[in-house]
Every structure is written in C-alpha cells, then in structure tokens.
Design brief:
globular; 397 residues; alpha+beta
Length: 397
C-alpha cells in the first residue's frame, strides 16, 4: 500500500499543499485565499442571464456578473433550472438560469459554465447532468458492481451519483450519509434559487486547499502536517464538521529552528516543477513548454552516451522519459492536450513497449489521462482532465 502524507504551510498569503507518496512529493497546489482577485472560481454557482446566442456553434454566452460573459453549451438547456423565462424556445436571450463554473478563465478564454450542477463530497458526487449511478474506474470491479447494486434504490430521474475512489475505504453507511447531505444541499439550492436576483452567487466553492484535502486519497494517508496555527484551526474545523474520524491525522508542526519546507526540501522540488528543462537520471532531459492550446514535452538524449546499440539506448531513454513525463504532468497539474515528442524508435515492438509503459505510469495518476494515439510524425498525443489550473498559472496571479 502506498503511504501518503500531506504538508500544509502558509507563506506570503499563499497556502501551499504538498502531497507525498512514499516520501516523494507528487503534487503541489498553491492557493491565495485572501487575495480576493479570483471571484469566479471553479464550482461557484450563480443565477446567470443569457446575453447572446450563437446557433452555428451551438453555444450561448451567459453573464454571471455585469460584463462577465461565460461560454455555455446550449445542449444542456433542456434540463436547466430556470428562474426566469423570456421566451418559449429552449433558450432565449434574457433567460435567467442557474449555472456553475465548470472551467475557469484561462488567459484570453472566458470561463465556461454549465447548468449540469455538481455537488462534490469525499466519497460521492451528486450531478444533475446525468441520472445514472457511476463509480470510479480505479475501484475494484467487484466493489463497483456491489456499490451500484446497493445504490440502485436511490436512482431517480432528477440527478445521478458518481462514487469516488475514496469510497473504497469507507463504510456504506458513510457513503450513504454523505449522499443524503449532498441531496440536502441540492434541494436547498433549488428552493432558494427562485427567490434570488440575477447575478446572485448561490453557492461559493470552498477554499481550494479544502477541496484539495477532499480529493486526497484516504488509502494509506498517515498524517496531515500543518505549519501555520491559523490554518491548522481552519482545517481542524472542517474535519470536525465533515470528517471527524480523520481528526487524529491532523498535526500542528511548530519549530522555529527547522521550518517544514526545509525539512522536506519543498523549495527545490518547486523549482524543478517550474523549470522548462527537466534532467533525467540517465543524462537525457525533457523540455516542457506551454502554449495556449496545448503543452509540448520534447525528449532529448542530452548527456546520455549512445552505446553500440542505439535502438536499445533510445528505448531506455524513452522509458525513463515516460515515467518522468507522467510524474511532471501530475506535479505541475497539466491538463488538456499534451504532445510528447519521444526519441524516434524504428522498431514497432519497442514503440508498443513504450506506449504500454507510458499508459501504466499515467494510470497511477488520480486524475484521468488518456493516451490517444501516435501521429505519423511519431508524436504521442494524450489528454488529461482539467480539474484546476496548472501550477505555473496559479503562481502567476
């Protein structure tokens, strides 16, 4: 079983979270809870107004605040919760409806909103976008089937349920209790929505560092070490309310001589996660570059000496690069389209081995990644689901 530990510290109004697995830092998250700059964050729910409709792309633009227009997929309108209807068509300019931010603004791109609402807990997600009962693919097949069968009596035509990976360590009573709590939150929001004016924020997402704690795998989690006393009290209050059984894992770290960051060498890991060039143990290196449309990872032989059998050497470099690329994607929280330019391999068997190994490394990531294909130019295409903004963007605020 993988041993997990969470480090939390506050520096210059930033809350840092470092997740360790088997004593290695695998995730870094940074949040500015007191900055007040980012108002329209992932998960916030608003009463929005349809500002414009663009039929040829099947989209509308919905204001959630005066002057703040968000992209909206019109196919969701049939099941939307309207608080005011301006016409008889499924979606009309002037309609007011409940929407949730599903993607935050990125550079020149506006936020994306959805009328398929999601209420997320540690063990389950209640969603109005789909009425099926689903389970995480990372759970054992037998457990997935058992959970689906036990939750069948709770299937309805109004909302669906997705059982998360953390449910694997929970009693069914805990899962059911959380589902009922999520249902109460949804019911309360529906009842209050019709009484609120346009642009009202019906629900604010919890601070990002609380969401990060909610998403950490509980399996093998030994402790949550917090350096700042005020932060410790905030996290303890959350766990007392939501997860009292986990309170014993909280620990306040106090040492004036050896800060927590020094103890775990977090600064050097952070610097590596922000560097464009990442050196591999075999002397090769990768260059990681970001564009607005995608991320490119270029593998180079670097200082690695090519021996008598170049094909074997290049395969070894690529296998090491595959491991590091999967690690860096998680560490940097990269999402969307990622293109990896491995060193070209002429042997089809070697290419298959590389892709198989790469998929295995990607499967260890809690966030879903999909290896799509290899292009004719030998570029490996993959995607990673967007949950939060990448590390380099969160630090650029």
């Amino acid at each position: 079983m993988t041993s997990r530990k969470v480090l939390m510290m506050k520096e210059a109004q930033k809350v840092w979270i470092f997740l360790l697995e088997d004593d290695e830092i695998v995730e870094i998250h940074c949040d500015k809870p007191e900055s007040g700059v980012r108002r329209h964050v992932l998960g916030n729910i608003y009463v929005g107004r349809v500002k414009n409709i663009v039929p040829n792309i099947g989209a509308a633009f919905i204001e959630i605040e005066s002057g703040v227009e968000c992209y909206y997929d019109m196919s969701q309108a049939a099941n939307a919760l309207f608080t005011h209807k301006a016409g008889r068509k499924p979606l009309c300019i002037g309609d007011e409806l409940v929407v949730q931010i599903s993607k935050e603004a990125v550079k020149t791109k506006a936020p994306t909103v959805s009328s398929n609402l999601s209420f997320t807990g540690r063990y389950a997600i209640l969603t109005t976008g789909n009425t099926r009962i689903g389970t995480s693919g990372k759970l054992p097949k037998s457990l997935r089937e058992e959970l689906k069968e036990r939750l069948l009596p709770y299937k309805n035509e109004e909302y669906g349920l997705i059982i998360r990976t953390n449910a694997g360590d929970a009693d069914f009573a805990q899962i059911l209790g959380e589902i009922k709590s999520l249902e109460q939150s949804y019911t309360a929001l529906k009842s209050v929505a019709h009484t609120r004016t346009c642009f009202s924020c019906l629900q604010e997402a919890p601070p990002a560092y609380i969401s990060d704690l909610k998403n950490v795998y509980t399996e093998g989690l030994t402790e949550i070490v917090i350096e700042d006393e005020e932060l410790y009290c905030q996290v303890r209050e959350y766990y007392t309310r939501e997860q009292p059984a986990e309170l014993e894992k909280l620990r306040l770290y106090q040492s004036s001589q050896l800060p927590l960051g020094k103890l775990y060498n977090t600064q050097s890991v952070l610097e590596r996660a922000l560097s464009e060039r990442v050196w591999l143990k075999n002397g090769a290196y990768m260059v990681i570059q970001y564009t607005e449309a995608l991320t490119v990872i270029d593998v180079n032989s670097g200082k690695c000496s090519v021996k008598k059998n170049p094909s074997e050497t290049y395969l070894k470099i690529n296998l090491e690069a595959a491991r590091e690329a999967a690690k860096q994607m998680r560490l940097r929280n990269l999402s969307g389209i990622v293109i990896v330019d491995f060193i070209n391999l002429d042997d089809a068997d070697a290419t298959r081995e590389l892709l198989k190994t790469f998929r295995q490394y990607l499967s260890r990531d809690p966030i879903q990644s999909t290896l799509v294909d290899v292009t004719e130019l030998q570029l490996v295409e993959l995607t990673r689901k967007k949950v939060r903004r990448p590390l380099h963007e969160s630090l650029a605020e």
